Amino acid sequence: MESRRIKLTKRIIKTAFIELLHKKSLEQITVTELCSAADVNRSTFYDHYSDFNMLLREIESDFLKQMPFLNETLTKKDTLTEFISFTRYFKIVP
């Protein structure tokens, strides 16, 4: 079971990552940039995630838990694309 502090730190990292995805492609984002946006140390990022793939898998898992109907309609390959589109839509539309 994760502590509240760990959950909060992960949420901050995920939120900063999603905000960066609104501005640039995944390939353009660096760990340093993400940590700066999240206001955490690189060591904090690596305490929780080994790399961006691990972070993406956790975000994907969180997303699918909130949208169970998507499990039936999306393949893993489509999930990230749909997730980014979904978050961009809700960022633009209040």
Written account of the structure:
It is a single chain. The chain is 76% helix and 0% strand. The protein is globular, with a radius of gyration of 14 Å. The model has no long low-confidence stretch (mean pLDDT 83). The protein is mostly helical. The protein has one domain: Tetracycline Repressor, domain 2.
Helix content: over 70%
CATH topology name: Tetracycline Repressor, domain 2
Write down the secondary-structure element order.
HHHHHH
- The overall average pLDDT, rounded, is 83
The CATH class, by name, is Mainly Alpha
Instruction: Give me the secondary-structure category.
Output: mainly alpha
Largest sheet: none
Q: What would you call the shape?
A: globular
The assigned CATH architecture is Orthogonal Bundle
Poorly predicted ranges (pLDDT <50, ≥5 residues)? none
